[in-house]
Amino acid sequence: EVQLVESGGGLVQPGGSLRLSCAASGFALSSYSMNWVRQAPGKGLEWVAYISNSSPTLYYADSVKGRFTISRDNAKNSLYLQMNSLRDEDTAVYYCARHDYGAYGGYWGQGTLVIVSS
Amino acid sequence: EIVLTQSPGTLSLSPGERATLSCRASQSVSSSYLAWYQQKPGRAPRFLIYGASSRATGVPDRFSGSGSGTDFTLTISRLEPEDSAVYYCQRYDRSPYTFGQGTKLEIK
After folding, report:
1. Which of A45, A104, B34, B65 could tie B99 with a disulfide, CB 3.0–4.6 Å?
2. Which residues in B lie closer than 8 A to residue A59 (C-beta atoms)?
3. Residues paired with B87 in a beta bridge
4. Smallest Cβ distance to A47: which of B46, B98, B101?
């Protein structure tokens, strides 16, 4: 069974850092590109970052460029999001999602909550 | 950067009726790389439609997608109470993989 489990969320002060993890099981992470998507409280979905399965190619939303870094460790079957210089507006549930838009695609984790507040 | 605009913002319909949700892109979405999701409160989004019109595995045939270029539609025929949710479209042809702002569907 394919599963994605995020962890590492919590309360952090503005300007602080946090590292999110996404543990994949039931499939080889190395075969898939991955995304981080976030959702602020009561708001819609916002795509945050993408990493390809090889090379890798990295893309970021303008709102996080230069502050967030997406990475992967295929040996550990894990995806990461390093978040630096955090702002109040980064408060959200962060989801990892497989970049897989086929008949059997669309796998998302359950999300981890990040609260940026003093 | 492509902007996806969904309409209406909120839709209130009765069971058995048909819902028509729109997603309009500010520029053409290549090869109809457009997906639809359903999200219920406190839950992760559920993948419904890919390639603008193909249903993901396990999605009831009451859900159908159509459109190309800049205009896309999600239709839900024969609404059921469990269809109450927020629906999002997303482009996945190239970065940024933008989402629309969502349409809230209420079942009376």
Report:
1. A45
2. 95-97
3. B38, B103
4. B98
Under 8 Å between Cβ of A4 and A36: no
Both ends of chain A: CA-CA distance in Å?
A: 40
3-state secondary structure of B32: helix
> Sorting pLDDT into bands at 50, 70 and 90, what band is A104?
confident
Suggest the residue from B33, B97, B103 to mutate for an interface test with chain A (most A CBs closer than 10 A): B97
Contact B57/A47, CB-based, under 8 Å? Answer: no
Shortest Cα distance, chain B CAs vs residue A76, angstroms? 24
Q: E strands along A1-118, which residues?
A: 3-7, 10-12, 18-25, 34-39, 45-51, 58-60, 68-73, 78-83, 92-98, 112-116
Q: Could you read off the pLDDT of B12-63 as tens digits, one per residue?
A: 999 999 999 999 999 999 888 999 999 999 999 999 999 999 999 999 999 9
B90 in Cβ contact with B98 (< 8 Å): yes
Q: Please report which residue ranges of chain B form alpha helices under DSSP H.
A: none
> How far is A71 from A22, CA to CA, in rounded Å?
11
The residues with which A91 forms a beta bridge, in sequence order, are none
